[in-house]
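Take one record.
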Amino acid sequence: MSHIEGTFVGSGGFNLYYQAWHPDKEIKAIIAIVHGLGGHSGLFTNAVQDLVSQNYAAYAFDLRGHGRSPGQRGHINSWAEFREDLHTFLIRIQEQAPTCAFFLWGHSLGATIALDFALRFPESLQGLILTAPALGKVKVPPLKVVLGRMLSRVYPRFTLKVGIKQGTSSRDPQVIAANAQDPLRHEYGTARLATEFFTTERWVAKHASTLEVPLLILHGSKDKVAPPEGSLAFFQQVTFVDKERYLYQGDYHDLHQDINYNVMLTDLENWLEKHLEKVTSRVSQCQIKTPSLQSSPLKIELRSQESASTIQIGYSDL
C-alpha cells in the first residue's frame, strides 16, 4: 500500500489537506471519504486498510476548519464552501483517474455534505455510501441550537462546544482514549455552521425523492449523536430503486471504529462488489495517471441551493 499526502486549493483559495491510499495491485475503483464534525481524514484507518487490501484506492480530505486544513475550527461562512471544496476534490481525483468507477462515502456531517453533492451531481458517481448520516433530529442540546440560530446573523463566528459526550461514538476503550488525546480532533461548531447545517438538512430531506444514485446507508441502532430514525425516514422517501439500508444492533455512531466494525465493512465491500459488476460495461480498467492531485485554483459549475440553475464561480473571485 502506498500513502500520499498533499493539499489542493478549495473555495476561497484555502489549501486543504488530503490523503490517499493506493493498493499495490490493480485498482478496482476509487472511494472518496468525507469525515464528520470535529473529525479528520485520519480517522478511517480500519476501513482504509480493509478497502485497500481489497484493491480499492481511498481518498479523504480534512474539511476546512478541521484537522490539518486551515480555517476557524468548526466554522463556514456558507454551506456552499463545503460543497465547492468537495466538488473540487472529486474533480481533481477524477482528472487523474478518468477511467475509474467512483464511489462517495460520507460519515455523519460528511454524509450530509456528500448527500447534498449527490443530489446535485449524480452523474459523477457510481454510488453513494452514508454512515451514521446526520439527518432528522441530531442530538445537540436544544438550547444550543436556538442560541446558534440567534447568533448566526449578528455573530456568525460565535463558537460553542457541540455537547457530544465522550464514549457516545464508539464502545472500543482504545478508540475512546485515542480520540480524547487526538490533537487534530475538536468539539466545536459556530453559530453560522449550525444554521447552515440545519438549512441544508431540511433541503436534503425535501429532495430525497429526486436522488438518482445507488444508495447504501449504514447506521448503528444505539447512535446517540445522529439517531437512526433520521436515516430511516430519509431512506423511505427515496424512490430510486437501487437503495439499501443496514441497521447494526447495539452499534454506536462511528461504525468504522466500533468494536465490530468488520461486520459493517463486510456489508460495505459486498455492496461495492455488486455495484462494480453493474458498471464494468461502462467504466474501463481503473488507471491513475499521477498519485498526487493538482493544487492550482479551479473553476467549476455550481448549482444554487434554491434552484437547479447553474452559475460559474472562479475561486479567485470568492
About this structure: Residues 302-318 have pLDDT under 50 and may be disordered. Residues 2-317 form a domain with the Rossmann fold fold (CATH 3.40.50.1820). The CA atoms of residues 99 and 283 lie 6 Å apart.
